[in-house]
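Customer escalation, tier 2.

The customer says the design service returned an amino acid string that "doesn't look like it belongs to this structure." They asked us to rerun it and document both sides in this ticket. The original structure tokens are below, unchanged.
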């Protein structure tokens, strides 16, 4: 039989990146965490954690962590059938893109009692990879999937518009949104996985434009950067509509939109326990997003 406190120690080291932070999270000493992980490695005969900065689980370690989370979800489902078994809050790790988190996801999470959420923020184009590796129980992703062993529901389209401050447009785009002007005008980029600005440029200006870039890994930072005249960027309409209406931000080319389809993917093993969360996510998406 597996020792679940040992696997919980392994998961905490992987999630928090160090034995010290894992110890703080579990209310134990770093020595106790180290002993549990070492004992689990001896029991399984496999290296489960790569020691470093940060510490990360090996593929074998990730499989054990996924098993622990699947068991927790199954026990949550069991508690619904056997009230006497007791119901405790279940930690659920989810991959979500920053713009969804900043606009419509949080109210959905708040409407689901009995779960403790651990959110991984990553681009919608790669969030499915977290689910493929078994590091999350569910993901809001741009990939329809579904992955093997998973189910997928279309959520809707998150609409983006290319925008900047009026002062930025007057300074950099006085003669219009031309190939030459856009090659010089600074652009805001969330991360090296963010392709929204590139996709808009290719569709409406020209391919292979490489403007100077400000890296701003924050949904609200994108808005603030645009308002301050730092650069132009693709902002979700849900977040920026009031600023556009008041003229604080303007579209670079009015009426040019970029719609990103989003999907909710989750493992079938935990589907029953995740059903309230799935219902809340789908309802919030119907209210906030454009139809699929």
């Amino acid at each position: 039989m597996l020792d679940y406190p040992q696997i919980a120690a392994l998961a905490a080291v992987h999630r928090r990146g160090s034995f010290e932070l894992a110890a703080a999270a579990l209310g134990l000493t770093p020595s106790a965490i180290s002993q549990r992980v070492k004992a689990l490695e001896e029991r399984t005969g496999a290296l489960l954690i790569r020691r470093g900065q940060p510490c990360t689980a090996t593929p074998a370690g990730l499989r054990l962590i996924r098993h622990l989370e699947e068991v927790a979800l199954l026990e949550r489902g069991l508690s619904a059938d056997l009230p006497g078994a007791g119901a405790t809050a279940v930690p659920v790790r989810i991959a979500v893109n920053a713009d969804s988190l900043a606009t419509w996801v949080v109210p959905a999470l708040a409407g689901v009692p009995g779960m403790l959420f651990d959110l991984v923020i990553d681009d919608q184009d790669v969030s499915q990879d977290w689910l493929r590796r078994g590091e999350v129980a569910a993901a809001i992703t741009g990939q329809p999937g579904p992955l093997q062993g998973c189910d997928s529901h279309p959520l809707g389209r998150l609409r983006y518009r290319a925008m900047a401050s009026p002062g930025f447009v007057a300074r950099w785009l006085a003669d219009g949104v031309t190939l030459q002007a856009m090659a010089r005008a600074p652009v805001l980029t969330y991360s090296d996985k963010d392709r929204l600005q590139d996709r808009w440029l290719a569709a409406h200006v020209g391919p292979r434009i490489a403007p100077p870039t400000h890296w701003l890994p924050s949904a609200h930072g994108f808005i603030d950067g645009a308002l301050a005249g730092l650069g132009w960027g693709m902002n979700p309409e849900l977040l920026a509509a009031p600023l556009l209406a008041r003229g604080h931000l303007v579209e670079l080319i009015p009426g040019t939109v970029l719609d990103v389809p989003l999907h909710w993917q989750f493992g079938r093993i935990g589907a029953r326990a995740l059903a309230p969360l799935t219902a809340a996510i789908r309802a919030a998406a119907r209210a906030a997003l454009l139809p699929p």
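Tier 2 assessment: The sequence is consistent with the input. Residues 158-260 form a domain with the D-Maltodextrin-Binding Protein; domain 2 fold (CATH 3.40.190.10). The chain has a mean pLDDT of 92. Sent an explanation to the customer and offered a walkthrough call.
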